[in-house]
Amino acid sequence: MSPRHLLLALGLAAVWGVNFVVIEVGLAHFPPLLFSALRFLVAAVPAIFFLRSPGVPWRWVALVALTLAVLKFGLLFTGMAAGMPPGLSSLVLQAQAPFTLLFAVLLLKEHLTRRQLLGMAIALGGIALIAVDLGATSPVGAFLLLLGAAALWGLSNVIVRHARPPDMLRFMVWVSALAVLPLFGLSAVFEGDWGALRSVPWPAVGAVLYVGLLATVAGFGAWGFLIRTYSASSTAPFSLLVPVFGMAAAAVFTGETITPVQVVAGVLVIAGVLTGLGYAAARPSPAISPASTSG
């Protein structure tokens, strides 16, 4: 990888890691489902007016919109609003990797190697360690919401793998467009009053623009470019830096305390994902969805 593209990959991991802190800023003003709807509205408009169709049957776009954009991000934002800290959220979401393998076995009839099984066990061990470390007074319910978000992320990764969209940026813009109305509908039913839209402070505006334009549109575009240039197997390891940047940003900007147990858990999760990824890198692999890396 050239130095310029290496900096792009590192910068992208930083953008996606800091994204979790920015989500926290947005949730301080918007209810979670409304914030998620605004995120995808900004990501879709005006891009859909300049892009062609997604290049795959619309049923796959609708399925990913449901599992990833509506349900996964709905659970993620709701879990963080319920008290899950941003740094730890960026780490727990890496559980999407073993969930992806599990759904690939169940739905695509893939066979796991011993190395993949070992990686899954190591990563899940790290997630279990986080659950134990949370303790009785910590947001265990919020943690379970994040774990559900990771599972839905894994499911959407398998759907994307099966659909094989030719252009991930174009695909994700249309996914964003299809998610807007359901998210606004869910917000209307479960959150009711949209008083947060009457007066929006600049930090909240910046949060919507960051997660919608920078983390979603620009992020997916850069990730797709790197995968097309260097292949998924050589690009995917950079996604493992996302929780590193996420936890560091949370410690600096929000004062989130990272315990020694969480550090060990983080090492286990990243090592487990890297173990399974190491086998995938040894053989040709389909394009990996950038959805598996960011919040």
Outline the structure in words.
With 295 residues, the protein is mostly helical. It has one domain (3-292). The chain is built from 12 helices and no strands. The protein has helices spanning 3-27, 32-44, 58-81, 86-92, 96-108, 114-134, 140-163, 168-190, 202-230, 232-235, 242-253, 260-280. Helix 2 (32-44) crosses helix 9 (202-230), helix 6 runs antiparallel to helix 12 (260-280) and helix 8 (168-190) runs antiparallel to helix 9 (202-230). The longest helix has 29 residues, at 202-230. It is globular. The model is unreliable at 279-288 (pLDDT under 50). It comes from Actinophytocola algeriensis. It is a multi-pass membrane protein. Belongs to the EamA transporter family.
Task: Throw out a few tags for this protein.
295 residues; mainly alpha; 0% strand
Task: Reconstruct the topology from this structure.
Layout: H1 3-27, H2 32-44, H3 58-81, H4 86-92, H5 96-108, H6 114-134, H7 140-163, H8 168-190, H9 202-230, H10 232-235, H11 242-253, H12 260-280
Helix pairs in contact: 1-4, 1-9, 1-11, 2-3, 2-8, 2-9, 3-7, 3-8, 4-11, 5-7, 6-12, 8-9
In a few lines, what is going on in this structure?
With 295 residues, this protein is mainly alpha-helical.
